[in-house]
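Hey, weird one. I pasted the Amidohydrolase-related domain-containing protein sequence into the form twice and got a warning about non-standard characters only the second time. First submission, copied straight from the form history:
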Amino acid sequence: MNTYGTAELARVALSYPAIDNHAHPLLKAEHRSHLEFEGLVSEATGQALTQDAIHTLACFRATAQLGQILGLKGELTWEKVKQVRDALDYDRLCRVFMEATGIQCILIDDGLGGSSQYAEDYKWHDRFTRSPTKRIVRVEALAETLLKEIFDSQLNREEMNPYRAYIGFIEQFYEAVKQFANDPEVAGFKSVACYRTGLNIGIVQEGQAVEHCVTMVMLRYEAQRTLRLVDKPLNDYIVNITLRVAGECGKPVQFHTGLGDSDITLALSSPAQMQSIIKSYPETKFVLLHSSYPYTRDAGYLTAVYPNVFLDFGEVFPFLSADGQCAVVKQVLELAPTNKIMWSTDGHWWPESYYLGTRQAREALWKVLAESVAKQDLTESQAIGIVKGALFDNANRIYDLGLAPNWLDN
């Protein structure tokens, strides 16, 4: 057997139907150039994105792979790839990259900042999949929408009342989460507490502290007309309500962990910070997103010892080098039960993000598992079962999607 196993393992790894358990919407055609394309290969911002990200191994590899599917010849450069993709008809561009993924179903978090203004509706993405797209509701975005509506209503009447706003919010937020939890279009929820106040989420919230936070948010909104929840008691309250309702209704709750832009506090992005709250909601399914990189082993431990914890090994594709991606997959497999791991693209804005996120993940799974087969650590049949579970079966079961894999060779 060669290093990368038999043709059957390669065929399954590279073309088995996939459920993308966490992604974001694509930009509308009229906004296709609204954001810096370098965001495809990096979470950086500003100069670190536009000047530095293009000098990473991840970008060099992405340049080669995008150039290949675009049919480019000769010496490839990032700028050449950008010029060619910008000149393509947008519908064709989306189809070229999306149809090459083998993604059967996408679970879309449409609460990413800018989605409502610049991106397509989640159902629009059905044109690229063989099963209907489902929503992931971002709870901090939901809370901000409700608070803004409450504040605007009071401002219009010129009678700002923090206590009334607080009471209205806690009633409306609970009812909204309950309604979404019972909505068949919603596959689960997502929290970005990692970005806002960190993953050291408190279990007990004092009503007075939450009320005080609502008051502070109201005052900032009244003065600046901007609203972003960064007050820990309020953010912790939002997460706890979501976990309680989701547990009652059987909907998973995704958490951004690890890798992110400069807005996170890295030390508070490890899922190890979540151990207490995981234990406090044993009936709720926790999905740790983004491989928790660079805290992958922490996530693997939690997945191994708590039955309600699951691990997504996404986003490192395409942000890490090829060797780095394989190292992450190996760390995931060190301890995490293989029936509890799931894959995602974290695709966002550009169809190329879905393509690279799929192609590179498939290749990493194939190479890592084939090496294990070659060393006789597992059989090829077991390796194929792991691939099918990671790409489709586990997400199908955990999110209760009720899908059958619709094979389409790529």
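That's the output from the first submission. The warning seems to come from a hidden character in my clipboard, not from the data itself. The radius of gyration is 22 Å.
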